[in-house]
Amino acid sequence: TDPQKIPVTVLSRCLQFGLKQIPQQQIRDRLMHVLGEEGITTDAPSVALVARAAEGSLRDALSLLDQAIAHGGGTLEESSTRAMLGVVDKTYLHAILRALAAGDGAALAAEAERMSERSLSFESALQDLGVMLHRLALAQVVPQSLPEDDPDAPALLELSQRFAADELQLYYQIAVQGRAEIGLAPDEHAGFVMTLLRMLAFAPVA
Question: Against a cut of 0.70, is the pTM above it?
Answer without folding.
Answer: no
